[in-house]
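Notebook entry, structure prediction.
Reason for the run: the old model in the group folder had no record of what sequence produced it. Starting over properly, with the input documented here first.
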Amino acid sequence: MIGSLHIKNVGIIDEININLNEGFNVFTGETGAGKTLIIDSLQILAGGRFSKEIIRNGEKSSFIEMLIYLNEEEYIISREVNQTGRNICKINGRLVTVNELKNFMKKVIDIHGQQDNQTILEPSSHIKFLDGFIGSKIEELNKEYLEKYNRYVIINDELKKNYGDDKEKQRKLDLLEYQRNEIKEANLCKGEEEELEEKLKKILNSEKIQKNLEESHYKIYEVILSELNSIVKMMEKISDYDSNYEKTQEQLQSTYYELEEAERDLYNYKENVYFDEEERINIEARIDLIQNLKRKYGNNVEEILEYEKDVEEQIKMIENLSTYIEELKEERKEIEKEMTDLSEKMHSVREKYSQIMSEQINNELKDLEMISAKFSVKINIRNEFNTKGKDDVEFLIQTNVGEESKPLIKIASGGEMSRIMLGIKKVLADVDQVPILIFDEIDTGISGIAAKKVGIKMKEISKKHQVICVTHLAQIAAKGDYNYFIKKEIKDNKTKTKIELLDEDGVLKELARIATGEINDISIKHAKELRKEKVA
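New structure, fully documented this time:
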């Protein structure tokens, strides 16, 4: 929903801030006060076109900004336009193009009467609305179909892979075989590189290792063990006199045995230290070989071996390409049969429910005083598969008896289109995911009972969407959850727009004004009667 709207230097609007609410928001007010400018500002913010004439007289630019809430997240959307035609569009402070802004906002807001910003006018979205109306009866079919379609796409992509003509194929095969043989001949083992580097480090430091091992062995054998043995014997002589002496003597004895074992290890180490020049050369050559393979095929031995497996698979595939292709074609043929069967089932379901949906929408249009209008759903079967089967769905409307049905997008009258949209939105309220709906003066040409029903329908839609409506009819305004009065005032020889959120007393006075043109006891009484029916 829109939380707040800030408009600066648009037409006669100097600068206004509007805090909006969930539910049904109604704008009324004086003719020429700026109601349409507010809708125009929303259209511009939704990525629509603008004319330089909309910039307030004497100013260099217009600025529009709003705070919206989507899925418990906040978004700040802004657009600045100036006399040179330059645009600055931002989403949460990030600069975006007008197209990016438009693509984002078309999922957020529908402005009825401004045809370039209504997702329901786009034929590509009609199948989504129809399937949403149908619900679970087509969801399972589409889910099963989509699993097969995804495999179908993978098979087609695989078949499109081209290794070229025979010469190109042989060249590719020769390269793969060379890579495979180079890795295979290296006879690599996991962990080999680390072992080689450890061996090489020992060989290169053999002199240092030998010297330190000999000195360590000498000091333990000739000095430490000899002295420690003497100490153990001295402690044995007094161990009978105190249990603590005995305990210490045992600890020293244990230490002596451990040092004896360490002395034997040091002896073996120093006896086995050697320097073999030929082994060093072989190890360095082996490490160089591994480094060379790493530069070509992977960051370590494990990755090189994985690359070898991949090369083997590619070689097998090329060598058996004809067989592989035939297998894929057979699989695709079988999947096409299954997809065709599911597509036909989905088509049958769509045909059935398109009639039900059309009937419900046509009933809504009758309520909206469009007796001659007839909504219908056209379903064509395409030759190729897509994510929804083979159906191509488009919504059509016949506005007058004897006329042909036309696509929604070709309906010219803004007021007529808005009422058609209202009827459709009423039926598809649970399906339509666009959270904000704006109706600009959809009361053109209606009055009385029809106007009351328009108000009721917008009120019902506002239970699932934020609805913003500009109206001149008291029957519609009376249904508002929040009523805003828009007026103009002249200050310093300049006309400015002002907006006020009305309290209940203010709402009654405004209803009286737009219903009768006067505010008196009789018109207030009438306003109260209208207001009693606020809840549809």
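Summary: Residues 321-367 form the longest helix (47 residues).
The old model has been moved to the deprecated folder.
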